């Protein structure tokens, strides 16, 4: 019995120190020796192996390495090493006689000893980071780095890497990365463009009146001067304002105080209107004709009350006749109140003008007042030619005719207007 127990102890002691043999590797304690075994990847190993020798195999793939201190994978088929391939415990590595074309120096950060002799370096711009690392690293090399040579391309074969590092040119951006960067740039540009358009629309809707005032101020001072020059001619008035006497309060606040120089010295024009400038005792039709022909322009303020006033329609007809005779834009039509285009078409006197000519409409939004005044002043100042159409021939208006009153069309009064032309 004691003899059997002693034999078992002896056998256990023997196998503790005798090398263990496996089909793929030979183990000596924490050392795994696996040379020339036709391995294509690292075989299964105990997790505590510290030294691994895999020279003269066909290794292409690494895995399962966690505590290796020294490793020899020379004379294998390695072509690429990923950055996190080796554990941080690895200090000594032999990669000689492989097919590494452009090693990544990040892979070697934990090493103190390295052999890269007889690799097939491909000398192009992708080798730049490796060449820079060779010049600054503290790693000890098994052979002088001066012996490392280019294998590819054929034009640079056997050229020392040190010589190539002096003529290397930076890589152009990869096409995929360039496309990705371009897509990002286009996305940012489109996003900024959309946001800009939205904000511009919002700002224009809210502040277009102020923007127009700033624009006219800049243009006026830089290009036109502070005040436009009036044309020099022999007419007595710059503009004859034809409107219904029922609209006088509105016209005075909205137009006369903005245009007539007798209301303010800042205003440009000498205006003529019935309540002030018609001669008492003179025939009313004669007064209208004299006012039209002694003024550069006739401004007809067309409202619901205007269309019910036969004398206003007569003035419109006479001014339109002068326009067709001189073929210049001597008639300026301003529509005020809530009147649609089709409602104006009901009145024969103004129908031909509305169909063929441009006219102004009093703005509903106070922000557009400055734009309106600018357009009105421009029409009074500038003479442009007009074309004559067959349907333009005006017919005499009937002073006694009273158009049917339109329901729901109100002429709105306006408050004080702070802006001056």
TrEMBL record:
Source organism: Dissostichus eleginoides (Patagonian toothfish)
Membrane topology: Single-pass type I membrane protein
Region (Disordered): 389-421
One GO biological process term: innate immune response
A GO molecular-function annotation: signaling receptor activity
Domain TIR, first and last residues per copy: 235-380
PROSITE patterns: LRR, TIR
Record keywords: Glycoprotein, Immunity, Inflammatory response, Innate immunity, Leucine-rich repeat, Membrane, Receptor, Repeat, Signal, Transmembrane, Transmembrane helix
Record has Aminoacyl-tRNA synthetase as a keyword: no
Predominant localisation class: membrane
Listed name of the protein: Toll-like receptor 5
């Amino acid at each position: 019995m004691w003899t059997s127990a002693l034999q078992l102890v002896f056998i256990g002691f023997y196998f503790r120190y005798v090398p263990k043999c496996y089909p793929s590797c030979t183990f000596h304690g924490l050392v795994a020796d696996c040379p020339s075994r036709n391995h294509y990847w690292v075989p299964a190993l105990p997790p505590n192996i510290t030294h691994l020798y895999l020279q003269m195999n066909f290794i292409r793939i690494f895995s399962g390495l966690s505590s290796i201190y020294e490793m020899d994978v020379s004379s294998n088929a390695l072509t690429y090493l990923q950055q996190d391939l080796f554990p941080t415990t690895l200090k000594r590595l032999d990669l000689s006689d492989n097919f590494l074309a452009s090693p990544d120096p990040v892979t070697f950060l934990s090493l103190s000893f390295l052999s890269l002799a007889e690799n097939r370096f491909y000398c192009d711009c992708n080798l730049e980071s490796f060449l820079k690392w060779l010049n600054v690293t503290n790693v000890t090399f098994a052979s002088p780095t001066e012996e490392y040579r280019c294998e590819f391309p054929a034009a640079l074969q056997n050229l020392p890497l040190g010589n190539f590092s002096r003529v290397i040119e930076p890589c152009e951006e990869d096409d995929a990365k360039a496309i990705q960067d371009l897509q990002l740039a286009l996305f940012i540009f489109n996003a900024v463009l959309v946001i800009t358009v939205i904000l511009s629309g919002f700002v224009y809707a809210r502040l277009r009146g102020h923007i127009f005032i700033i624009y006219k101020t800049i243009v006026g001072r830089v290009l036109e001067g502070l005040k436009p020059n009036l044309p020099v001619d022999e007419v007595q008035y710059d503009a004859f304002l034809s409107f219904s006497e029922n609209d006088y309060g509105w016209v005075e606040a909205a137009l006369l105080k903005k245009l007539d120089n007798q209301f303010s010295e800042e205003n440009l024009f000498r205006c003529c209107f019935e309540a002030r400038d018609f001669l008492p005792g003179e025939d009313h039709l004669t007064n209208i004709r004299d006012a039209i022909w002694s003024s550069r322009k006739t401004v007809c303020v067309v409202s619901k009350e205007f269309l019910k006033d036969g004398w206003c329609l007569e003035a419109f007809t006479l001014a339109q006749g002068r326009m067709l005779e001189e073929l210049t834009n001597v008639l300026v039509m301003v529509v005020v109140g809530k009147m649609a285009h089709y409602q104006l078409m009901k009145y024969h006197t103004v129908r031909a003008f509305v169909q063929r000519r441009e006219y102004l409409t009093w703005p509903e939004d106070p922000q557009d007042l400055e734009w309106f005044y600018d357009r009105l002043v421009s029409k009074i100042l500038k003479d442009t030619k007009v074309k004559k159409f067959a349907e333009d021939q005006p017919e005499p208006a009937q002073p006694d005719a009273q158009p049917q009153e339109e329901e729901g069309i109100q002429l709105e009064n306006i408050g004080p207007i702070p802006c001056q032309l």
